[in-house]
Amino acid sequence: MQPITIPNIGSKINIPIFEAPWLSDGGSISGECQSSDVIHQTRINSFMGHNNHNWDYNVINYYFDPETVHKFLKTSLFRQVEEDQLIWRAEKNGHYSVRSAYHICMEEITRNSHLHRAGKWDIIWRIKVSLKVKNLIWRVCQNCLPVRASFLDKGVHCPSLCALCDESYEDMIHVLFDYYEARNVSRESCLLSKVDLAMQNNNTTTEIIFALLQDLPQDQAHIFCTILWSLWKSRNMRVWQNTT
After folding, report:
1. Is residue 183 helix, strand or coil?
2. How far apart are alpha carbons 136 and 126 in whole angstroms?
3. Is 71 left (phi over 0), alpha (psi -120 to 50) or beta?
4. pLDDT one-digit tens code per residue, 191-218
5. Which of 8, 34, 114, 235 has the fewest CB atoms within 10 Å, measured from its CB?
6. pLDDT value, residue 192
């Protein structure tokens, strides 16, 4: 049987047929088992019908196995597309951004209700502080800061007392709010009364932080977040460098 000629239709189809994530599920077609140099050089438009709005079943079926043929046919071709190119679906302009990727990851994580953490997470990203500070606040609110209480909850053998004062149980509330140096810093920053009120009305570190970020004026919210970052850095310097 003579091989079917692969047509070259138009010039606005830019996506290679192999190793590009153009399938409807975000997957790609592997070219490892294709020995023909001709097919390796083809673009997607070579497997479309003459109007570019449907697949050429005869050509696809000749060159590919039934499973791959099914992947082709399952991927829709849209009439309104003037130029075929890879785009980032999460942004209107089609360009990748870290922000939209973060939202996609968070949606994927929180599909399981037991992983969902309530809170106005956008408040964290609106604070005008450095990214390292925002990252720390996010980690605290996700309850993934490596304090000794967290290690003990996971069965890791370690001391239970605070690395800073060696007197109290080291959890996040103690390190960030209740440790006497943390209270001194809050007092000097005129935040202590609001921190104490938030601690009285809320049970977890996440609830305390969200309550304060919603209540504090913008300039005080910036100071508050930076203080938390500094306190955590101070704790780590004591643990890993024995530096006060």
Report:
1. helix
2. 14
3. alpha
4. 999 999 999 999 899 999 999 999 999 9
5. 114
6. 94
User: Taking each helix axis from N to C terminus, what angle separates 131-141 and 218-241, rounded to the nearest 10 degrees?
Assistant: 80
Q: Of 243, 239, 233, 244, give the one whose Cα is nearest residue 163.
A: 239
- H, E, C per residue of 8-29: CCCCCECCECCCCCCCCCCCCC
- Category of 140 on φ-ψ map: left (φ > 0), alpha (ψ -120 to 50) or beta: alpha
130: left (phi over 0), alpha (psi -120 to 50) or beta: beta
In the chain, domain spans: 1-81, 87-116, 120-241
For residue 116, pLDDT over 60 is answered with: no
Give the Cα-Cα-Cα angle 192, 229, 183 (nearest 5 degrees): 25
Question: Residue 167 above 50 pLDDT?
Answer: yes
Structure tokens at 68: 């791959």
